[in-house]
What we know:
The protein is built from 20 helices and 26 strands. The protein is α+β, with helices and mostly antiparallel strands. A hairpin with a 5-residue loop joins β4 and β5 (109-114). α11 (327-336) runs antiparallel to α13 and α17 runs antiparallel to α18.
Amino acid sequence: MPRTRIILSALLCLSAAFAAAADFDPSGWKTNNDFPLIGSPKAVKGGTLRYYWTSFPTTLRGVGPNNNQMSNFEIQGMVYESLIGLHPETLEYIPGLADYWKVSPDKRTFYFHINPKARWADGSPVTSEDVVATWDFMVRKDIKDPYNNMIWGESYERPVAVGPGVVSVRTKKVHWRLFYYFGGMTIYPAKELRGLTGEKYLKDYNWKMLMGSGAYELKPEDIKNQQSITLTRRKDYWGENERFNIGLGNFDKLNWQIILDEDLAWEKFKKGDIDYFYVLKAQRWKEETDFEKVKKGWIQKRKIFTDSPQGFGGFAFNMRKPPFNDRNVRKAFAYLFNRERLINKLFFDEYTFIDSYFPGGIWANPDNPKIRYNPRMARMLLARAGWKHRNKDGWLVNDKGEIFEITLEYGVPSYDRIHKVIQEDLAKAGIKMNLKLLDYNTLQKKVGERNFVLHFQSWGGLLFPNPENSWSSELADKNDNNNMTGFKNAEVDALCKKYDATEDRKEQQRIIRRIDELIFREYPYALAWGSGFSRILYYNKFGHPDKYFTRIGDYRNIKSMWWLDPEKEKALDKAMKTGGQLPVGETEQRPWN
């Protein structure tokens, strides 16, 4: 297209946008323009931030099978946007693609006014049609995403484009989180969704992305299969000067290298090949993080506490098939999961027991039983399940003479040391557990297809629990969703609906605690351990907000909130060349307490 036509087209778009803005009357609408800044106004743009993943993403799609991975969420959060956001300190709604919003008196119809400045990466305006097209896409059965089908299709009527700048949606029920969900839905461009079948999307967009409106873009040449992925900051990002973006999205490039082994990544970090490192191993934190570069201040060491919601993790049992279709066996395994030994011997008492499926904050049921290592109780439960005797080799056998033998498949080599401790304790009880290391993506596919017996799984926490997502009976026999154990409970299903309908926070708390109690009774997991902090090391060349992370520890972390400080980078370079000393900060940070 000739340059004059491009300029003319852009001017026409701007003219239309300004006309739409002039026609809009904000009376009766809500907005939020005076919230505390999320980023730092001191931030500067530029440079590259280098990090790593232990496996190449299974897919780059935001929808469909195998998309539920942290690596994918990281990328999606930098490329796409939603209508509104939640302030990570005040928990108030803040603008996103929409600058105004309102709710009908019956609390079932939501309206959003799209910021006339909002633009896709090609410069075209974001409109209400994009929102409608996104919803239409999310409810397609051929995208093979049952949770998205359920949450969007069963909760909302089809959205309506009231005009280019206004979209409305009516819910099928009163549900206090539905405004939050719809406002937070990732918006995709209608021009790319039109005519796109689920089958074509799953095939063609496995390794490319739909166009975004966010601060970063993924260029095809920056996808290096099994090696790295790099995002590039858009120089023409429409939200560059919006209040919700001040001090955020500072790096020109975000680079993730694929380093299959965490120990190798640690060595590369110490050499300077990556810029920061989350220390997941307590032993490493206690014994390996006071080397020369740290003592000289070239690398900074921080344990940062936040008010982040805690997720849960542990051994997920496939309740659909033997031996874990028997509650006695699941409970026995939980009693044989020697967390005390692991926390004390391997984790240096850095962690605490998880005794809830909603740990931390107000949601956990304090009356849940405290399951601790107890071989005697486990032996009694196994006998109830028919595993009463041992053969000549010491393995438990049932009346058919079958050995109690299971295989744990896992995808992270560093978990060897943990699994072998568990293997030893199970062997003492007569259970033979085989360990099998798989390619991580292969493992995820098998788990998604429910082709597993036992799987160690960790889940992130939510500000507002969504129990239906993980525990709905409707999802129990479907692939590729969070109910991986096949949990079914009619009372939990009923309580989920009741929880969705009430706006009283204390009643919500009471309901979630009852759900927690009911889930806990069934032992779908042998729960593991948790913490309320992040342990990081980083090269002393970055600027960051005074409190390092957001209060809730959300996706706006190092890659979003920090920046490359030219003066610090210069000082670090000089110190590393001359052996000089740089300031060493306090290790433990409790900025939100």
